[in-house]
Write a structure and sequence with these properties.
Helices cover 36% and strands 19% of the residues. The chain is built from eight helices and ten strands. Strand 5, helix 5 and strand 6 form a beta-alpha-beta unit.
Length: 232
Amino acid sequence: MKIEVCINRLEDVALLQSLAVDRIELCVELACGGLTPSLAMVEQALAISTLPIHVLVRPRSGHFVYSEATLFEMKKTIAQLQDLGADGIVTGALTQERKLPLAVLKSFRSIVSKGKLYFHRAFDEVNTPAKALEDLITLGYDGVLTSGQESSALAGIHSLKQWKTQANGKLIILPGGGINADNCFQFKALDFEWLHLSAKKAVDDFPKSLFSAPQYGLDVEALNKVIALLKP
């Protein structure tokens, strides 16, 4: 089984090089679910990593309904990440009605001519997931990161299994959300090809500030427990 680890620090890119994982998802601000990292951070990460790196393109926290100006920004960022050589892009958007904005998502796909394109956990707020999955397959997306529209992937495991069957290998259903050593084997037992986890822990190695938000780094011990279970 393959493991993708979501991280938000360059130090953790370096740490992952010696661990038995298969891919990195790079972002910043894990405290709010992850935001787009700077181009400079991506460039440095690509320079030090032998692992494939997928980059999150999510310009702000909160809902996934974006203005035209924000969508323009996202498209430009995706193109820049392509030029840098990112192995994949993880992004998404919704309409006010919580449906997929098909023209927008088609434009994202047209920009990503190299590497993979995954739809992120905005899928967990879409109101017609079975249809949305078919639409993403038609658009040529490579995968969907999802918790099964529940608070955790374990809680949503039945939906994840149904969508995996529906996708039938046409795209990857990537379970993510609360996956750890206590529950990861349940996904392996259902023959999921990939798992997504952050294995994060709070870090406080920074000066205190009135403007500080919680900061997270890689919990190597927790990650190694998952690796030992999935890659004996």
